Amino acid sequence: MRVMKTIKYILIASTLFMLFRCTNPSPTELIQDNTAVNENLQQIEVVSPDPDTYVYSNGYDSTGIVEPYLNKSSVISLSGIKYSNFDDGSQADYYYAVFNDKSMPILNTMGTRLGFWARMMGGVRFNNVVASPMQNRIRYLQNGEVHDTVIGYRFVLTRKMMHSHNKFEFPYNSKLNVRVDESRNSFFQIDVPTPAEISGEVNASGSPSRNNLTLNLKWNGTNQGIIEIVIGVLEDSGNEIFPLLKLTGADNGKMKISSSILEKLPDRVYKKLVITFIRRQTKEIPENSILKDSYIVSQSIHNIKVEIPD
Predict the structure, then answer these.
(1) Contact at 8 Å (CB) between 198 and 277?
(2) How many domains does the chain fold into?
(3) Which of 240, 235, 217 minimizes the C-alpha distance to 302?
(4) CA-to-CA distance for 66 and 57, rounded, in angstroms?
(5) Which residue in 128, 146, 164, 213 has its CB near the most CB atoms, within 10 A?
(6) What is the block-wise mean pLDDT of the chain (310 residues), using blocks of 10 residues?
(7) What is the distance between the alpha carbons of residues 253 and 221, in angstroms, rounded to a whole number?
(8) How many CA atoms lie within 13 A of 193 on its CB side?
(9) Which residues, at least 6 apart from 196, have a Cβ–Cβ distance to it below 8 Å?
(10) Secondary structure class of 26 (helix, strand, coil)
């Protein structure tokens, strides 16, 4: 994943997010851990056992979704994102829409479907601010070589892309208007509910060398629904974040992750972890002539870089 200059350090984020190991794509591995000290863990997935062993398409980006590509014709993602302990820690909202032509799948030489060609639209607006069409790229590993190709366009808007006269901040616990223009006289418009802002805190105790590293996570829980926690590693250059584990728990404001989970991480990555808190809402809408089958998501994301003791 190459982080855009305008949204440096943006993680994760919603569509076409394939994670590959070896030469073939494979789904995330579901693991079970019933250790009592792993408080509020409902599900644990290994996204990748090691950042050196996979390649992804569109990566671990601002949408916070770490999963294979979404088998949807329309994907709209709205993310309010903030950072703690980064050199240029700040907020960087990220909005995008992609419209897949499911009659035009993208296949590798083995016949495995990697995604779909993205069809063009007349335009997309978020809160009446025009999004820009940008190349929709995928990266994948085949026969030991990394391939990078463009599969159409996605419509993107970030806070830094907005002009001062029409700049808006992500409207937490409210609604955000999305308008999709198919043509001059054909459009679809919807108000998408947004989640309450999530603010996390990470406290590390113990150490990897003593095999007792524990992470105590806290956040402003709502006691409704679930949240996702993604544990990633920040590469040495500081420009890429690789997801390793995805954890799911109740949105009750606390989670304890013991060494029995953290020992699944490669030893060398411990000192440069990034913990991502994700609170998400999805919007279901009836299929229509413009969006067809769709996935619409809004989310609050908090990325925290953590220094791990020896």
Answers:
(1) yes
(2) 1
(3) 217
(4) 11
(5) 213
(6) 36 27 37 56 72 49 50 90 80 88 86 84 96 85 75 90 89 97 91 97 87 92 94 69 85 92 72 88 88 91 85
(7) 4
(8) 9
(9) 172, 173, 220, 222, 279, 300
(10) coil
If DSSP codes are grouped into helix, strand and coil, which group holds residue 252?
Answer: coil
Which of 294, 304, 302 has its CA nearest to residue 15? 294
Cα(227)–Cα(249) distance, integer angstroms: 6
Cβ proximity of 151 and 115 under 8 Å: yes
CA 111, CA 93: separation in Å to the nearest integer?
36
CB-based contacts of 17: which residues, under 8 Å, 6+ apart?
A: 56, 57, 58, 59, 60, 61, 63, 65, 66, 67, 68, 69
The string of DSSP letters for 46-99 reads ES-S-GGGEEEES-SBTT---SSPP--SEEEEEEEEEEESSTT--B--EEEEEE
Locate 83 and state its tokens. Answer: 């950072």
Pairing of strands 294-306, 74-84: parallel
How many CA within 13 A on the CB side of residue 109? 7
Amino acid at 205: S
What is the spatial distance between Cα 107 and Cα 167, in angstroms, rounded to a whole number?
39
Q: Which two tokens stand for residue 288?
A: 């229509």
Tell the residue number behind the tokens 């020896």, with chain if given. 310
211 φ, ψ (degrees, to nearest 5): 55, 35
